[in-house]
Amino acid sequence: MESEAVAPRASAGPDAVYLFCDGACRGNPGPMGIGVLLRYGRAEKLIAEPIGRGTSNVAELSAIERGLREIRRRDLPVVIVSDSSYAIGVLSGRLRAHANVDLVRRVAELIAGFKDIRFRRVRGHAGMPENEEVDRLAVRAAAEGFRCDDLRSLPIPGVPEP
Amino acid sequence: MESEAVAPRASAGPDAVYLFCDGACRGNPGPMGIGVLLRYGRAEKLIAEPIGRGTSNVAELSAIERGLREIRRRDLPVVIVSDSSYAIGVLSGRLRAHANVDLVRRVAELIAGFKDIRFRRVRGHAGMPENEEVDRLAVRAAAEGFRCDDLRSLPIPGVPEP
RNA sequence: AGACACCAUGUUGC
DNA sequence: GCAACATGGTGTCT
């Protein structure tokens, strides 16, 4: 795995799209679900979807794929935030995929269509709010078939919500 | 590798130094840590150290090296207790080292300076208390940069601790 | 093909 | 906190 140094790392800039994603299954293999949070400026989009039966690693890869397909502006820098060392490893070429070859290649080609994609590994259940949120979405999608595709606006500090 | 029969085996005698050691990484390769427990009579010494980035096998070899360097009395019999079939193999000459050649030679020369060194292979995570302890030390050293170098006295059965 | 080790993730149970 | 299972990877040797 290997965590990147997080603190000293420059952010991808104000125009970057942040893609937080997580996959879950009930049992492994088992019914899978994905959770995605896309953030661009003050706008957020939440996606939850059950995606059939498969393995935990397939769920993690599928969450990344689903999130990337949501991004139209392929010229914008994208930061993929995932807790799956496996998914980041096989997509960044650090690990070689022996299983899930088709899925890995499909997502890799998707990635190749973007101008600037970076990966950011985070520890699962380490308190990062966005990671916790997509984890809950993925778990609900896998367990209850929960599905959503909602826009949302970030609160502005000091400005009361309507 | 086959496990040696543990129960019927003669111990190395009352004056032997027991060197329990383990290496760990966070990811492989990744940040490494070592854990060492030296026992001589009723005295124990615990060592934990992060040792930079490398592979699991390098960590295992380094734990042995670090433990051996702690032993002054090279005339005493030493029992190296490790769960690494690789480390014991390359150091005992049963396996041939193609990688990590410098490190292997360095530790082998260290070993050659002792009068009586034996290896004892134990299964990892099989419940042996000393192995579990050095495993935890190594993992903490790799994960959190934990470091220690402490003396400790074994409890005497029937005698309450202070 | 096998062995040992080191991990990551996903679950299940208490 | 403690068990256990599965899916996937590397480091190393035979």
Overall description:
The structure is a homodimer of 162-residue chains. Chain A has 162 residues and is α/β, with parallel strands linked by helices. Helices cover 31% and strands 31% of the residues of chain A. Chain A contains 4 helices and 6 strands. Chain A has helices spanning 56-69, 85-92, 101-112, 129-144, and strands spanning 17-25, 30-40, 43-54, 77-82, 116-121, 148-153. Chain A has a 6-stranded mixed β-sheet. The N and C termini of chain A lie far apart (43 Å). Mean pLDDT of chain A is 88; it is low at 1-10. The A-B interface holds A 1-3, 85 and B 26-27, 29-31. Chain B binds a DNA/RNA duplex (14 and 14 nucleotides) through β1, α1 and α2.
Question: In a few lines, what is going on in this structure?
Answer:
The structure is a homodimer of 162-residue chains. With 162 residues, chain A is α/β, with parallel strands linked by helices.
